[in-house]
Amino acid sequence: MSVQQLQARFDQEIAAAADLAALDGVRVAALGKSGEITQLLKSLGKMDADTRTAEAPKIHSLREAVTDAIAAKKAALEGAELERRLATERLDLSLPSAEAPRGSIHPVSQVMDELTEIFADLGFSVAEGPEIEDDWHNFSALNIPETHPARAMQDTFYMDEKGEDGAPMVLRTHTSPVQIRTMQKKQPPIRIIAPGRVYRSDSDATHTPMFHQIEGLVIDKAITLGHLKWTLETFLKAFFERDDVVLRMRPSYFPFTEPSAEVDVGWSMEKGRRVVGGSEGWMEVLGSGMVHPKVIAACGLDPDEWQGFAFGTGVDRLAMLKYGMDDLRAFFDGDLRWMKHYGFRFLDVPTLSGGVGA
Fold it and tell me: What residues form the membrane-spanning segments (predicted)?
């Protein structure tokens, strides 16, 4: 059989192949170890030079043509099979996955969701702001003088970039600048929480250079310290899910509030561990106070008309107190063993009706 006849026959067989199995049979018959085209290639060595020169191009051309035809037919059959499966197969997305989920929610993310759920029920909305701040929003607008220790290089991460006032930009040391930006953009009454990452030059078992903070701000008429105390009591009882949470407010000093108060909660020993609740001792959990009139005025509001309170606490510290962690640095080590132990299932969504704790 001539080369032309072989190519015509294989073209017919390839075109007639109804499925991948039949096509593979044609491939083996033509190009397999004992295939007809393979035998022709082997016969070239037995030909004389003139015959080989004449026949070799024809045989190699036949092999390439059949190989290309088989590849094209295979692509067509696979495409047709995919279209058939897409048209006929159905996947029930309501059924649970056969494999258990391997990921977990980080404790910081979980506590952020818990706090948002609690404060949303109290009428607070979530506000956000940039993590790279200018000097005015991070310090000056908050009544922090240029000589205040908080501006020192050992506490603040300064950047090479300069702000509009010529002062260096900083990695924000608290989320209080979000309060300033909110008061500048929004007319009172204001009720917001400002969660987010903040940065300070510190590192030990209870401090890290980057950590998470949440601050609250209320601006309205006739706001008093009593409103602040009630808000904090309600928040802490809901978060720790205990009715025996006792608060103690101690006079303190913050440049942006006046009067200012540190807030302690009572603790007790349970199973050899210190937990929030009871009154065996006191531990500090947050800072708070009435918004300083200078801060209100710096945002373009009349402090004689508008008053308010603010508070702030570390999200990581709250997670440690609630879920029994003793080293803040482990939060950011990326250790999968730690995450498997302290992480939360993705279905552990905090709700007030079901309890914000996982």
Answer: none
258 is in an annotated binding site: yes
Cα gap 156→198, rounded to integer Å: 10
| Domain boundary residue, one of 35, 54, 88 | 88
CA 257-261-264 angle, 5° bins: 145
User: Residue 289, by phi and psi: left (phi above 0), alpha (psi -120 to 50) or beta?
Assistant: left
Same domain flag for 135 and 82: no
Examine residue 42 and state whether it is found in any structural domain, yes or no.
yes
Domain extent, residue 202, equals 107-341
* Six-digit token string for 85: 């499966």
**Same domain? 26 vs 168:** no
Q: Report the 10 Å Cβ neighbour count for 37.
A: 22
> Contact 342/107 with Cβ under 8 angstroms?
yes
Higher-pLDDT residue of 101, 81: 81
Enter the DSSP assignment of 350.
Answer: -
Same domain, yes or no: 186 and 293: yes
Q: Within 89-200, where are the H helices?
A: 107-121, 135-138, 176-185
For position 112, which CATH number holds? 3.30.930.10
- Cα–chain center distance at 86: 34
Determine how many CB atoms are found less than 10 A away from the CB of residue 322.
20
How many structural domains does the chain have? 2
- Band (pLDDT 50/70/90 cuts) for residue 358 is very low
Give me the mean pLDDT over the 316-330 stretch: 84
pLDDT of residue 182: 95
**Going by C-beta distance under 8 Å and a sequence separation of 6 or more, which residues neighbour residue 101?**
345, 346
* Amino acid (1-letter code) at residue 139: F
Which position has the token pair 């499925």? 19
Residue 111 structure tokens: 């506590």
Higher pLDDT, 299 or 334: 299
Mean pLDDT of the region 99-126:
86
